[in-house]
Structure prediction request, 104 residues.
Amino acid sequence: MQGEEIALGPGKADLMSAIIECGSLSKAAKSLSISYKRAWSMVDAINRGFKTPLIILQKGGASGGGAKLSPEGVFVLQQYRACQSETNAIVSKFFEQIQRLTAE
Prediction:
């Protein structure tokens, strides 16, 4: 978190995953049904929230441009997804345990 802005959360992690899959910010935005401007703002917030940029944007031109995660970006996304997975497992176990106590 940087000031009031959150550097990484579910939507930003989804954008990072889409960038890996699509290789382009515009294609990633389209795949998530968000505007390019919104996606670019998210990338900006992510990159400002960390010491080194997690997402590298390459401007268009003859080569067509693109987007990719830096090595730090790949690491952060992997750690975030692992945390999500562990959290989901804990929540599922909680609900399994209290399910016995709920009225049917």
